Automatic annotation (TrEMBL):
It comes from Homo sapiens. It is a multi-pass membrane protein. Its EC number is 1.3.1.21, 1.3.1.70. This is 7-dehydrocholesterol reductase. Interacts with DHCR24; this interaction regulates DHCR7 activity. Interacts with TMEM147. GO terms for biological process: cholesterol biosynthetic process. Component of the microsomal antiestrogen binding site (AEBS), a multiproteic complex at the ER membrane that consists of an association between cholestenol Delta-isomerase/EBP and DHCR7. This complex is responsible for cholesterol-5,6-epoxide hydrolase (ChEH) activity, which consists in the hydration of cholesterol-5,6-epoxides (5,6-EC) into cholestane-3beta,5alpha,6beta-triol (CT). The precise role of each component of this complex has not been described yet. Belongs to the ERG4/ERG24 family. Pfam families: ERG4_ERG24.
Amino acid sequence: MVKGYFFPTSARDCKFTGNFFYNYMMGIEFNPRIGKWFDFKLFFNGRPGIVAWTLINLSFAAKQRELHSHVTNAMVLVNVLQAIYVIDFFWNETWYLKTIDICHDHFGWYLGWGDCVWLPYLYTLQGLYLVYHPVQLSTPHAVGVLLLGLVGYYIFRVANHQKDLFRRTDGRCLIWGRKPKVIECSYTSADGQRHHSKLLVSGFWGVARHFNYVGDLMGSLAYCLACGGGHLLPYFYIIYMAILLTHRCLRDEHRCASKYGRDWERYTAAVPYRLLPGIF
Ligand code: NDP
């Protein structure tokens, strides 16, 4: 906050709304840095919390073994499914640079506290629950959870990859084996320059406008279902993710509608649903 006011890295990218609390919450600087190498957004979004997520989960598995002399299949499932998500993050780190957090959000309390406190404490609740309430799932239940988690991950990864490939190749690629359907669009940036862009209407982006979030939600539900039905606490994650991603979806669409105007309306006419076809 202080840096944003007094020593901004790039004064032209600072956002001052006139509301002190909003500035604190949503951030002033777009890409605050110290020197050439330390980038606040990249470091906080991409290092402490996400690494701690896996380490804390592993610690919970060790603690469960210490207390109950074995590790249950539910604990293994939670560890494996969440580790896949984290490994994916590092494996596809360049893709991550194109997400809303990096491309559009400014760096303030929302990102900093969210990454360093919220993520490692709240995303590990299932593991913590299983330490004190060990759950051993029946084989069909465990297989069902595993399949839901893997299908969710598949949708999440493929949908994000489709958009990334489409944008990287400027539409010169194949989506589900075919030339993609495209909506050509244009927008004016703050400096008054006119730019052109493209919206993908094929693959998962033709199913719903944020089907990548649906994959994420399926994975999140799988982590919770791994804890059985004994308590509401481990279900906190899916409730939170549903709120986060629905709000994110509306926030993003609001931004896209003001950025692309009528071109965005053409996209919403071609792909009428946000998350679930026929429902929302
Ligand atoms: P997206 O990757 O969906 O990016 C949205 C942006 O993509 C839009 O602002 C627009 O940007 C562009 N876009 C929208 N529609 C199209 C289209 N049809 N064709 C081409 N470009 C389009 O959003 P996020 O960054 O929020 O999410 C990335 C992933 O990260 C998701 O899978 C999400 O589930 C996950 N995530 C996970 C979180 C967690 O805590 N576990 C938190 C947040 C996200 P432009 O201006 O460039 O056109």
